[in-house]
Amino acid sequence: MTSTKQYNAFEAILLNNNHIRQVVIVGGTHGNERIGLYLVKKFNQDSSLLFRPNLTTTCLIGNPQACKENRRYIDTDLNRCFIKADLDNQLLGRHEERQAKVLHQQLGPKGNSDNFLLDLHSTTANMGLTLILVNDHPFNLHLAAYLTHHNPQVRVYRWTQGNQENAFVSSLCQLGFAIEVGPIPQGILLASLFQETETLIHQTLDYLEQINRDVSLPLPRTLPLFQHLDVVDFPKTSSGELAGMVHPQLQGKDYQPLNPGDPIFLTFEGQTLFYEGCSTVWPIFINEAAYYEKDIAMCLTHKQDISLKWN
Ligand SMILES: [Zn+2]
Question: How confident is the model over 33-77, as pLDDT tens digits?
Fold first, then answer.
């Protein structure tokens, strides 16, 4: 897969000589994902919790109205509203389209912001702690390598699709990523995942603080990464009705290899449908509740090791 933008070594060096001053943590981009929302509320009640001497961190709620109503969104998915042309289009006036413009004003301009952005999400799929990268910036890859090295539970998913522009909140800033944690049902809190997400945020801030102090960190030379390939839709009848479910043998098996010929769906009549691809893939977001409206049953990824150059 090609990336949305190629960064050369020079840019990487340049960035490593610069410092991160402003970190923004967004929770509640999706109003029924409570972990991010309540972490932001906690941090906003006591700003000393995130204090680092060489870093300023602010927290905000992505979609306050949706959070109030404990719904993913009011009119449309906020995390698909950050295409540049849409942000500039004043005719787009649905609730989330307006909220995206507000966030863009605060955190942007898109692609040219110095902020480091963390966008907090949760999933009903069995994805553990996942960093979702939306570009190939070396700074993000290095930080991801640091986090996977210090926290073996962390996996890295890169959602880039050729030159296609990314529409996520996290695409507002080149530096940073989304954190996706699960499994957790929509609308509830889980103490274990809440604490694990909080730890991951602290580990991220610790890394940024070290960078700002010009401390060189011992880091791995490769980063294991799951590269987005495609999405798989649910099977449908000829009239467009849902025809089956995720196969019980695949349920909860996020990040595990799926080979050609392995079971993937079970129809309501009890017939097993098999994966018909020609090579092994690693599915994630398996049976994610929020993707039913998009007809998406899972995303497929390719597992790869990225070589890292350290200065
Ligand atoms: Zn989300």
Answer: 999 999 999 999 998 999 999 999 999 999 999 999 999 999 999
- Per the structure block, which two tokens stand in for 30? 């999706």
- Domain span including residue 140: 9-224
Which helix or strand (DSSP H or E) is residue 71 part of? none
**DSSP 8-state secondary structure symbol assigned to residue 242:** B
Task: Give domain status of residue 246, yes or no.
Answer: yes
Cα(9) to ligand 1 centroid in Å equals 33
Q: Separation of 29 CA from ligand 1 center, angstroms?
A: 6
**Shared domain check, 282 and 145:** no
Distance 224 CA to ligand 1 centre (A): 23
Q: How far is the CA of 157 from the centre of ligand 1 (A)?
A: 15
- 257 alpha carbon to ligand 1 midpoint, in Å? 24
What is the DSSP-derived secondary structure letter of residue 72? S
CA of 78 to the centre of ligand 1 (A): 9
Is the previous residue joined to 109 through a cis bond, with omega within 30 degrees of 0?
A: yes
Domain match, 256 and 188 both:
no
Give domain status of residue 41, yes or no. Answer: yes
Q: State the CB neighbour count (10 A cutoff) for residue 8.
A: 9
Residue 32 lies in a domain: yes
Note whether residue 107 is domain-resident: yes
Same domain, 57 and 134: yes
CA–centroid distance, 30 to ligand 1, in Å, is 5
pLDDT digits (tens, 9 = 90+) for 115-166: 999 999 999 999 999 999 999 999 999 999 999 999 999 999 999 988 899 9
